[in-house]
Amino acid sequence: AQSVTQLGSHVSVSEGALVLLRCNYSSSVPPYLFWYVQYPNQGLQLLLKYTSAATLVKGINGFEAEFKKSETSFHLTKPSAHMSDAAEYFCAVTLSNSGYSTLTFGKGTMLLVSP
Amino acid sequence: DADVTQTPRNRITKTGKRIMLECSQTKGHDRMYWYRQDPGLGLRLIYYSFDVKDINKGEISDGYSVSRQAQAKFSLSLESAIPNQTALYFCATSASTGFAETQYFGPGTRLLVL
């Protein structure tokens, strides 16, 4: 079984400030981890994913996430927020030992960016 | 044209009515999924299909049924709609690499059950 917990349903930052969205996972086997983003009135799209190749993963639009096994975390960061980053962000987990495992999503974090 | 399309985009129906939400994809993927999104609850898996002859229940399948008419088409039915099925519904697809598959989402169907 697997699950993810996203800390904070809403995060507010100023334009140019650091973005930090938190995700902790629980998994019975080594996980694959994902961050998806949902812009207003759109479906989800992949930001980045961890597949055990490297613990620091770089994604689109300047986002990156670091897998920390000791902390069971996969937090998403961006050095400088843009207004266009305002969206809802979802962390998700799947098992690495099965080709039939489905994704389990967190409850989402809404990122608000102010001028 | 979008790779994953959903019809309708918006739907209002009444309690007790049967409705169908449709999903089509041109990505050539064999795996398809139906999720519902509710504020504060994230996305929850309703049904998924790993190929045309394979249908599986997800976390919240009660009150729903699905049909995989072809590799490219996956429909979700609400047999007798109830107000707590009011939600945003997403279809998604993935290729069966068996290795951290990326899911590709449609634009969603907003359903209101009165």
Folded structure, characterized:
The complex is a heterodimer of chains A (115) and B (114). Chain A is built from no helices and 11 strands. Chain A has 115 residues and is mainly beta. In chain A, the strands form 2 sheets. In chain A, strands 2, 4, 5, 9, 10 and 11 form a 6-stranded mixed beta sheet that branches. In chain A, strands 1-3-8-7-6 form a 5-stranded antiparallel beta sheet, with no helix packed on it. Chain A is globular and about 45 Å long. Chain B has 114 residues and is mainly beta. In chain B, 0% of the residues lie in helices and 57% in strands. Chain B is built from no helices and 11 strands. The model of chain B has no long low-confidence stretch (mean pLDDT 94). The chains are: A mainly beta (115), B mainly beta (114). Chains A and B meet through strand 5 and strand 10 of A and strand 5 of B.
